[in-house]
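tool=predict chain=A
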Amino acid sequence: MVNALRVAFFGTPRFAVPTLEALLTSRHDVVGVVTQPDRPRGRGQKLTDGPVKALAVARGLPLRQPVTVKEPSVADGLAAWRPDLGVVAAYGQIIPSAMLALPRYGMINVHPSLLPKYRGAAPVHRAVIAGDTETGVTIMRVAAKLDSGAMFARTARPIGPDETSEELEDALAVLGARLLVEVVDTIAAGTANEEPQDEHLVTYASRLTKDEGLIDWTQPARRIHDRVRGLYPWPHAWTFVDGRRVIVWRTAPRPEASSAAPGTVLHAGSDGLLAAAGDGRVLALLELQSEGGRALPAADFLRGHAIQPGARFGGP
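tool=predict ok
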C-alpha cells in the first residue's frame, strides 16, 4: 500500500491544471498551492485569475501568490504546510535552493520535453519550430541549475505534421499529469529511481520573442509552416503585403512547384491564398488576421482585404 504524501503544488498556466487535477484525484493530499499573481488577460486586459488559481479557489485549497518566490514569507508559509514533496508544473519562477530542501523528499517538476533536450522556457514551441517529429514529458528533480535535475521518468509522444504548439502542449499536459502521479506513487513507496542527465546531450529552448514571428519567405515551405504552427498562439507569425501587416495563423505546404520569387502571391481567390516559398514549393495560407481584426479563413479575409496575384509578402 502506497502511503499518502502531503504535496505542495507550484504552477500557474493552463499547462499545470491537469497535473493539479490528477494530484487532487490521487491518494495524495494537496496541502497548498503557490501560483503567480493575477495579471491582465484577454483583449480587454482585465485582471483575472490564472488557470491554476481558479482551480485552487474552486477546490478551497490554501493559496499563496507572491510577487517573487524569494520573499521570506513564502518559505515560512511552505514550511507551515509541512509538505512531504513539492510538485512544480510551469510555475514561472526559479525556486531558491533553500526552499527546494523544505519538503522531506524535495521537489519534482513536469517538463514538456525529453530531457536533456530542450531545457528552458519554450520546449514545446522550439520542438515544433524545429520540425521535430517526436517530443515527450520528463519528470525530474528540481535542482538549482535550470532543468538539470535527475530524471525519474520519461515518456515520448509523436508530433503531428500540422499540430500547433498549443495543441501539443495541451496533449503533453495530460500525459505529464499521469506520469507525475505515477512518480509520486513510487516516491511514496520508496521505489523511485533517479537517472542523471547526460550533459553532453543538453540543448536549450530559449524564451520566445515577438521579433521571431516575421516570416522569412526565402525559407522552405515546410520550415515556414513549422514556424507558423510553432508560434501559435503567441507571439504568432506575421508578414507584410502592400504595406500592411498581416498575422498568419495557419498554413499548409502544397505539393506544387513554383519558379516565382519567394513571397510572391500565386493565387488569391474564393478557394484560398497561395504563395511561393524559398525552396520552389508552394505554401497555402489558410487563416489570416489584419491589424485590429479577427482571424478569418483565407477566402473570408480576401473579401475584405484585397490581395492581387503578383503581390509580394515580405518585411516592412
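The mean pLDDT is 96. The two ends are 64 Å apart (CA to CA).
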